[in-house]
Amino acid sequence: MSYPADLKYTLTHEWIRLEGPHVTVGVSWFAQDSMGDVVHVELPEVGDTVNAGEPVCEIESVKAVSDVYSPVGGTVVEVNESLEDTPENVNSNPYTDGWLFKVEVGPTVALDECMTASAYEKHCAG
Asked: What topology does CATH give the domain 8-121?
């Protein structure tokens, strides 16, 4: 399994990439592997207000439907519309083509509760 070192990770298996005032969110390799084949992604709407720790979208796989939680509060500014036609990108490329949504956050965002790649890998192994 692969966990890019430039990302942060949550206990609920989302990854976070801080890009200026935006945070890009997706699910980790561990999460997509646990779900099985992804067949549909229900994304939030651009303009939606999201709260940290609350469900924002759903991923449907051959096994179940799983909630995806926002690691930060803010406003959804972009969603990965390509997942409507190619939801399998969540499985094949969770850190690139399989990203889910972007949130605009305030001037400072605290990701203190998020884990580094090495800490997340230990979390998944345990």
From this structure: OB fold (Dihydrolipoamide Acetyltransferase, E2P) (2.40.50)
User: Which residues does 122 contact at the CB level (< 8 Å), separation at least 6?
Assistant: none
Q: What is the pLDDT of residues 20-44, one digit of tens each?
A: 889 999 999 999 999 999 999 999 9
Judged by DSSP in three states, 13 sits in: coil
What is the Cα–Cα distance from 53 to 96, expressed in whole angstroms?
Answer: 23
Answer whether 102's CB lies under 8 Å from 78's CB: yes
Neighbour-count burial for 83-107, b at 16+ CB within 10 Å, e otherwise: beeebbbbbeebbeebbbbbbebee
Q: What is the 3-state secondary structure (H, E, C) of 22-64?
A: EEEEEECHHHHHHHCCEEEEECCCCCCEECCCCEEEEEEECCC
